[in-house]
Amino acid sequence: MKNHKLLLARNWSFKSKLLVIISALIIFIIMLISSFSYAMYSRHFTNETIKQTQQIIEQVSINVDTYMNELYRLTLSPYYNDSIMKELETQLEGDIEQLDKKRNIEAFLSSVMTLPRSEILRVYILTDSDLYSYTRTPYDMENYHDYAKTPWYQQAKVTSLPIFIPVHSEKVFGDKKTQIFSIAQRIRSKEDNSKVLAVIKVDSNYDGIKSICDQVQLQDKGSLFIVDENQNILYQNNKLLESDLLSRLNINEASENGNYIRTIENEEYIINAATLKSTNLKVIVVNSYSELNKRSILIRNTTIMLASICALLAVSLLFLFVQNFFKPLFNIINLMKEVQQGNLDVQTEIANNDEVGYLGRSFNKMVLQIKEMLEKNTLLVKEIYESRFLQKEAQYNNLCSQIRPHFLYNTLNTISLQIKCNENEDALHSIEHLSYYLRGIMNGDKNIKLSSEVDIVTAYLGIQKARFGNSLNYHIDLSPEVQDYMIPALTLQPIVENAVIHGCEVKRGEYTIVITNEIQDNKLILSVSDNGIGIEPTLLNTLNEKLSSSIHHAQEDSTETITESIGLDNVNKRIKLHYGEAYGLQMFSQTSQGTKVIVTLPYDSPLKERLKLCTLL
After folding, report:
1. What are the angstrom distances between the C-alpha of 107 and each of 111, 125, 133, 592?
2. Which residues on adjacent β-strands are paired with residue 513?
3. pLDDT tens string 444-502
4. Helices then strands (H, E): number in the chain?
5. Contacts of 75 (CB under 8 A, 6+ apart)
6. Adjacent-strand bridge partners of 236
7. By CB count within 10 A, which of 19, 25, 232, 501 is most buried?
């Protein structure tokens, strides 16, 4: 399909190719500039957005850190009230004294809660045995009765740093649980810092953090999240319409501060992250890459549309220009087509003296010269054709006539030896084989079926087997579809005879000849192989060079060839005369391993048509 399209493109006219190439070049340049501009603008806008977003969330983290530090300072408020510190250090036994102590401490906690911090829900001061509280909610904290066993309480008693209790759900205003976070801080004696008096705990909701984050202005459909170390969401402003977006983005892979890109279902998201120093809370902003680039895409599409309109106008003007400017050239092309069809009486009009005008004058002159040359050469071509045809016909008949005496001499000599040895029955068989062979070669200068050639070879090998006995074996295996294929007579027999003379006669032990065939690339390949003594490499190269030489070159020593070499050289020349220089014989051999002779014939057109074509050449 690809080659077919390429062939169609090659058949286009010059005008079509010129229009297509220049139009494609214009469109390519426009698209390249548009794409480059879009990529540059998009990259710049995205980088600026990432930087701006990073600055915003870093400022948010600072504000949230400041807010959390204020909550931490709230846990230090008992240190500023000496009476409360004294109450905490005093150990009372009476119920009335303990009730007064509880009233005083909870009054202090009430004063703390009266600060304009509506997000603070509950404040507790806890000891191993007593609990003091002030709450704005109808429910107390979880583990109210066994707080002393909680990990945060145990940890707060042994560390001087505030303990941040991550987001957790508790009942606050009703049965529906509310997410809150807590801060716990131990209270030590002013007199003895090693003495822990109590633990102060503050429960708060996220209204304070929400008021800070709600002020952040994000890009189109940008989302802001605040999560704790366990990936629990403290705050979210998700405008990307995907409730599980944060979990799918694997925010645990985000660095403490910085940005990275995550792809989900072919959608890219830009993630900016900043970590609070005081609580390890993480502020994350997620922006959709496609949303950020909406403006860039609009500008790109507008640019491409305008550029396409300009390209269309440019191509239209180009078409008009080519149509008029190259009109004389197209006229010459049309006249050349007429010349191809045999009309040599055409002449083009010359309107200008430019390069196209020069081409027109040259064309007119060329047509006149061709017409004169054709008239002069017609008779000469006819004479050459007749001369070469007669020459090749004479040479072909001469070569065919050399085979008969050569083979008859060898055959009659074999029969004579059998008679002298009183092998009359064997001699009778040999005479029968000879008779069949002579009947087969009566038309040896013509074309016969391959099966008939095989019969001749079988008759010949029967005569030779009578001479050599069981030392000579042969095997003929030819495909049924090639049995009726027409070949020049005595094509295989001289090759087999050559194998017997130069192989069987000089080798000791069993000698085998195998004849096979195959068809490759519209060629019939006949193979005659033996297990004889082989041919020396130097001699093999000389023989192959002689076989591959042109028949025209071989004519120079034709007399010597006919006199001294009747076998392979004779067959090779006849094949080349029949079919052309591309066909013939080739030899392969290795010393002490045998010899193979390959006969290559055409297998794609009738024999008469090939002979006619070869004669014309």
Report:
1. 6, 12, 9, 122
2. 474, 530
3. 567 888 998 898 889 888 877 877 778 889 999 999 999 999 988 888 888 988 888 88
4. 20, 17
5. 162, 183, 184, 185, 200, 202
6. 225
7. 19
